[in-house]
Amino acid sequence: MDVLINPHQAAFIKGRRITDNFCTAHILVHHLHTSKLSAALLKIDFERAFDNINWCFLVDLLQARGFGPLWISWIQALLRSANTSVILNGTPGNSFSCKCRLRQGDPLSPLLFILCVDVLSRMLQRAATSQLLPDLGIGQVRIQTLQFADDLLIFFDGSLRSAATIKLILDSFAAYSGLKINYSKSSLTPINLLVNQAAALANSFGCCVKSFPLNYLGLPLSPKRFCRSDYLPLIETVDNCLARWKGLSLSRGADSSSSIRCSRPYLPISARCLDYQLGF
């Protein structure tokens, strides 16, 4: 998977960390801001991501990426064996088979999902290679997207031409893959752009304008260096979780710890990221 997936997708792949994405985003935003370069950051929200994957798209993708017929037949059998029922007033109805979606709770589903969304990154990269989108980055490092599972950031130069190209790519990807973009929950954050420019860009996508600091992967993203006080809400959240352990035995605390880690997958509290941000 490490070879198959864009290096800026940090989820579900051994050796990649959520904190890398946040720090990369901060470095790029800080560079664009201090260099006085006009740019925009588009934060994409996928609508019910796992529920909308088109199976025909997934099979075509697996074939294109070199997976063998036997492996693909196993994946198809796994998907088609799932049944769903609707619960009304506590009573489940008759079961029926699904025509799309990935199975919730299946350990293969996250890997299949990031294979699917990797197509979008490749489409945007190809547009940049074809000079349909200007390159953004620092030095030799070019960055169009940063992904963590279905959490997607797209960086572009802030022009209406680039916005139209990105919108076309997003809509084409959604039509083929089944992964619909929820533009009403997506947002555009301007970097060194005028208010009317940002409004025009947001209008072209049908999304809202949000300013920095922007909540990204559970942390406040901003071009400025943060001080300790900026992390107080995050620290208070963790402190409240720890307070619930009072009076519990060690074994119960261990169980609670596992539960909290599972329910808060986006808390990137690592020494590496915080040390970088706080300047320790």
Describe the structure.
It comes from Ananas comosus var. bracteatus (red pineapple). The strands form five sheets. A five-stranded mixed beta sheet has the order 8-9-1-10-11, sandwiched between helices. Strands 2-5 form a two-stranded antiparallel sheet. Mean pLDDT is 79; it is low at 251-269 and 275-280. The protein has nine helices and 13 strands. It is of the alpha+beta class.
Count of helical regions: 9
Total number of strands: 13
Average pLDDT rating: 79
Tell me the number of structural domains: 2
Measured distance between first and last alpha carbons: 34 Å
Low-confidence stretches: 251-269, 275-280
> Cα-atom Rg, whole angstroms?
21 Å
Largest sheet: 5 strands, mixed
Overall, the morphology is globular
- The ordered H/E elements are HEHHEEEEHEEEEHEHEEEHHH
As a percent range, the share of strand residues is 5-15%
Which structural class should the secondary elements be placed in? alpha+beta
Strand order of the largest sheet: 8-9-1-10-11
Helix content range: 40-55%
Pfam family, one: RVT_1
InterPro entries: DNA/RNA_pol_sf (IPR043502), RT_dom (IPR000477)
Organism: Ananas comosus var. bracteatus (red pineapple)
Protein name: Reverse transcriptase domain-containing protein
